[in-house]
Specification:
With 505 residues, the chain is an all-alpha fold. It is built from 23 helices and 2 strands. Strands 1-2 form a two-stranded antiparallel sheet. A hairpin with a 2-residue loop joins strand 1 and strand 2. The two termini are 33 Å apart.
Length: 505
């Protein structure tokens, strides 16, 4: 039964994660196509169109053709082709229409009338562009027209070739560090499905920002998240350090053709590049950290009466009359509880690994993990590194189970012990959300052990966890220390109660 539950949870988490990553690729263009088609047909039926209406008709026609192309090619809104079209191509086509209009009808009354309008730049894109060209001489207009045609031909060829490295090479994307750019172009990475192309989209472009001065911070130049300048410095320092590490890992991954297992969230950077991610066998197996809550619940249900059942069944009298000291009996039960937790969690790891391997291929799982250590990227054994992190993540889980053990000892009530432990298993998610998104009055909760009972969100790099870790002095080491203290306190109280309890039938 436990294996079945773990399998169901594995499938659910992996598929949910895959759905989320795929959803970050954006939407298709079916609705946009339907809208521009209707607008084009409506406007085309109108007689005696104004100059602006003629322009709008042209614009709808162009967009109709482009959205049909995007739909036919199944291009999502965050694909490079969609970005190219919306960021450059449509603008060039609009400018082409208006430049042609000026060159052919510069002396027409309607063009001259628009040139005399006193309009702000952003009030109307058509009039704004017209006003821009009203100030140009014929020679300047012809020069811009020729340049415009060349750019349209270039981007048309890029779309026709459908090769990512050509887009990178000719679209003039911004780079302060050209190493990633060179890797993509020199390796001639063609498909957007290639993880190296997605590495490029994830790459932190400009991360070496200078920290704002205290005067700038006090003038409101910094983020409103921070109540003091020290909080701002602490956060930005950690943020830049993390980005440097990720930048190095992404470069190494691209250069040596090894998939990394970094997780990117839409909110992680200010850049739109965070919208691009990919799923590998490793990113799927890394979901094992989210099993901490499931493990707590399973152990709570199966071993919630580890002490109380002995009393309710009467077998406690047999234990007490045996030549074994009570503290040894209690310690053996606590060790059993911990081993039970590890067995379930390791079984979950096996089940999840098998499913992830079948789903994405076992090759990723056998390749090394990329870790940034002492200023450079090193390759380490993936599963050894994972087991190390699982051991660290298990310490807060044991702290939660120590409360289960304590409740089972003092109440001798299995349902109470199981129910309270279940609440403690869910509590971290609620508390982290409150501390991250609500008033600062919740921040003292970060000093309690309860937030660390599910360290899966920390190891999984979930944003609302990681942001809070950067904004405060707390960290995973602090959480482990607090958890160890919690284990000692609750086991110690359980031991005292157990040693002094009178055994009745």
């Amino acid at each position: 039964m436990i294996t079945l539950i773990l399998f169901i949870c594995s499938v659910g988490l992996v598929e949910l994660n895959d759905f989320y990553v795929n959803s970050t690729k954006g939407i298709d263009y079916g609705d946009d196509l339907e809208y521009v088609q209707s607008q084009y047909e409506l406007l085309s039926q109108k007689e005696n169109k104004s100059l602006e209406e003629e322009y709008q008709l042209y614009d709808f026609k162009v967009r109709k053709e482009i959205y049909q192309y995007l739909k036919d090619k199944n291009v999502k809104s965050r694909d490079w082709k969609a970005e190219l079209i919306h960021g450059q191509f449509l603008r060039l086509l609009d400018e082409h229409y208006i430049l042609k209009l000026f060159l052919e009808h510069r002396e027409d009354d309607d063009v001259q009338a628009i040139c005399k309008l006193d309009k702000t730049y952003w009030e109307n894109s058509f009039e704004a562009t017209i006003n821009h060209y009203c100030k140009k001489t014929d020679v300047e207009l012809e020069t811009e027209y020729d340049q415009n045609e060349k750019e349209i031909a270039l981007y048309s060829e890029l779309l026709k070739e459908d090769k990512f490295y050509l887009y990178v090479q000719y679209s003039n994307n911004y780079f302060e560090d050209e190493e990633m750019y060179k890797l993509v172009v020199n390796h001639k990475i063609e498909s957007m499905e290639d993880f190296k192309a997605l590495n490029y989209m994830q790459y932190p472009f400009a991360i070496y920002e200078e920290l704002k001065s205290e005067e700038d911070f006090n003038r409101g130049a910094a983020n409103d998240w921070f109540s003091t300048y020290q909080d701002y410095i602490r956060y930005e320092t950690k943020h830049i350090k993390d980005e440097k590490a990720e930048q190095a890992i992404i470069l190494y991954s691209t250069k040596y053709n090894i998939k990394h297992d970094l997780v990117f969230d839409d909110t992680y950077y200010d850049s739109g590049a965070t919208m691009y991610s990919y799923v590998t066998g490793k990113t799927a197996v890394n979901l094992i950290f989210h099993f901490s809550l499931i493990v707590i619940l399973l152990v709570g249900v199966t071993s919630g009466g580890i002490i109380s059942k002995e009393h309710s069944s009467g077998t406690i009298k047999n234990l007490i009359t045996a030549p074994i000291k009570r503290w040894k009996i209690l310690l053996s039960k606590f060790i059993y509880l911990i081993l039970h937790m590890y067995i379930i969690w390791l079984l979950a790891l096996v089940v999840l690994s098998l499913y992830a391997g079948i789903r994405y291929g076992f090759g990723d799982l056998l390749s090394p993990k990329l870790v940034y250590w002492n200023g450079k990227v090193v390759e380490v054994n993936y599963y050894l590194y994972l087991l190390k992190d699982m051991f660290l993540a298990s310490i807060p889980v044991i702290a939660c189970l120590s409360i289960l053990f304590f409740l089972s000892t003092i109440t001798l009530n299995t349902p109470v012990a199981t129910s309270v432990t279940t609440i403690f298993g869910i509590l971290p998610l609620i508390l982290w959300y409150l501390c991250s998104n609500m008033s600062s009055i919740f921040l003292p909760l970060t000093k309690t052990p309860f937030l660390y009972f599910d360290c899966g969100f920390i190891f999984g790099k979930q944003e609302f966890y990681m942001d809070l870790l950067k904004k405060t002095d707390i960290n995973l080491n602090y959480g482990i220390i607090v958890s160890l203290i919690t284990i000692v306190i609750f086991y110690g109280i359980s031991n005292i109660v157990y040693l002094r309890r009178d055994i009745k039938n």
